[in-house]
Specification:
Number of domains of chain A: 1
Order of helices and strands of chain B: HHHHHHHHH
Shape of chain B: elongated
Mean pLDDT of chain B: 90
Structural class of chain B: mainly alpha
Distance between the termini of chain A: 60 Å
Number of domains of chain B: 1
Oligomer: heterodimer
Largest interface: A-B, 52 and 51 residues
Number of helices of chain A: 9
Low-confidence stretches of chain A: none
Shape of chain A: globular
Radius of gyration of chain B: 22 Å
């Protein structure tokens, strides 16, 4: 074992690989944004199912428990190799990545929605109902707009987790930022320079989104204080 | 790609090797546990630095948390295993690399948990302890930490569950855990559905078990 072998850094490999970073970043952003949109919708559906009484609610409960218990890595292997082979569905890596990210995060988002909806004073719903609003219109005009304000900052925070998790789609060959980086590492044999750079890129993305969440929280909470 | 033959489910691939799967799951569990223990130690130390009130310590500690929480675990694992090894010449075993990566990521979360836990203890407690003659160290050891402990245990438990899920990524650097085993079986026997379903089931069982433990602890420790 050679401890502290003198290592000469060569950061010039980074600017030479800009085009690959760009390409990968495009895929990462696309996968992340699509997954966020899908899981925002699916999460709301799951939350509503989860809040139903009886066996339907139990299904929602199980969905949340199971999908929150899985890691994206295990899930993506199961979808891309297991389900694809057993049911002969030919997923391309991007689709498999989006499906896995969406299903996993919809479970987390469902819980965020649920706690936000439950935070709304039941008096609001009762008042709307006694004014003659139907149960659907009570939800969409009274409960949901208020719950949305509470849920939004946490939902945006969940976005940061999706960005970070999305790196794992590289294991099935999705040409995202991480995949491109691994490819460049094997080309230039410069793991330290590349992984440090890519860590920085993910960090910047996460910090931007987290800042957005913090700002939203301040803005939406203005009236509540 | 067109599959000409229909997929034949063969669960004996899993049931004949259940012992190997359990051993693989055990690897995930103990690696996650060591990573978590280190993350707690690092996190407590870092939280004390953060709350020290000295900018020399507090600022780097703040940046540390931001970085560790903002970098994907996958990137961190490869950075430790290939990157750091390359520049220092220290060759980590793949076990060491995943444990270090888990400890680093985890400490980003545990720092915030300890900080919140220590911050939640009323100042009056410190003042009272000091005024009855307890030293600074004793105040911490006998008054502040025992109270903060109740507050930090449930979120620490959740961090452990998160690290256990994250630990499954160790297969990418060839640590022989359950996912690595499933990958090997998949390429040799081509039974992806069965092996990955088995791994998913094992992970769900482990995670739900520990989540239940955390939930029970949370109820017990709740201050009446």
């Amino acid at each position: 074992m050679h401890v502290f072998l003198t290592y000469s850094y060569d950061w010039s490999v980074i600017p030479r690989s800009l085009v690959f970073f760009e390409r990968g970043l495009g895929v990462t952003v696309r996968i992340t944004v699509i997954s966020v949109v899908f899981s925002l919708v699916l999460g709301l559906v799951v939350a509503l199912v989860r809040m139903m009484p009886g066996p339907i609610g139990l299904i929602g409960f199980l969905y949340v428990q199971v999908f929150r218990a899985l890691s994206l890595y295990v899930y993506i292997l199961f979808v891309y190799f297991g389900i694809a082979a057993a049911f002969q569905i030919d997923f391309d890596p991007i689709t498999a990545g989006v499906i896995s990210l969406t299903l996993l995060n919809s479970a987390y988002m469902a819980e965020i929605y649920r706690s936000a909806i439950q935070a709304i004073d039941p008096g609001q719903r009762e008042a709307a109902r006694s004014l003659g609003l139907g149960s659907i219109s009570t939800f969409s005009n009274v409960t949901f707009p208020q719950a949305w304000r509470i849920a939004l900052p946490s939902l945006v925070n969940q976005f940061t987790d999706i960005i970070k998790d999305s790196a794992i789609v590289a294991v099935i060959g999705t040409p995202d930022l991480m995949y491109q980086t691994i490819e460049r590492v094997s080309f230039y044999q410069r793991p330290f320079e590349f992984y440090t750079t890519v860590a920085g890129i993910y960090l910047v993305m996460v910090i931007i989104v987290a800042q957005l969440a913090a700002r939203l929280e301040k803005r939406l909470g203005r009236h509540l204080a | 790609m067109i599959f000409l033959v229909t997929y034949n489910f063969d669960w004996s691939v899993v049931t004949d090797r259940w012992r190997l799967f359990v051993e693989g799951a055990w690897v995930d569990l103990w690696v996650a546990s060591i990573g978590f223990a280190l993350a707690c130690a690092l996190g407590l130390l870092n939280a004390l630095l953060r709350t020290s009130g000295l900018p020399v310590f507090a600022v780097p500690s703040f940046l540390y948390v931001q970085v560790m929480r903002g970098v994907p675990l996958y990137v961190l694992v490869l950075w430790v295993y290939f990157g750091v090894a390359n520049i220092t010449g220290i060759t980590f075993t793949s076990f060491q690399a995943i444990i270090i990566a888990l400890a680093l990521t985890g400490s980003g979360y545990t720092t915030e948990i300890f900080r919140a836990g220590l911050g939640a203890i009323d100042r009056g407690q410190t003042e009272a302890a000091r005024s009855i003659g307890l030293s600074r160290v004793r105040t911490y050891g006998h008054v502040i930490l025992p109270q903060a402990f109740r507050i930090v245990v449930p979120p620490l438990g959740n961090t452990f569950v998160g690290l256990l899920k994250g630990a499954t990524i160790m297969a990418v650097i060839a640590v022989p855990d359950m996912v690595f085993l499933a990958n090997e079986l998949n390429v040799t026997l081509f039974t992806p559905f069965e092996v990955f379903a088995a791994v998913a089931l094992l992970l769900v069982v482990m995670v739900l078990f520990f989540s239940a433990v955390v939930y029970l602890l949370e109820r017990r420790l709740r201050i009446a």
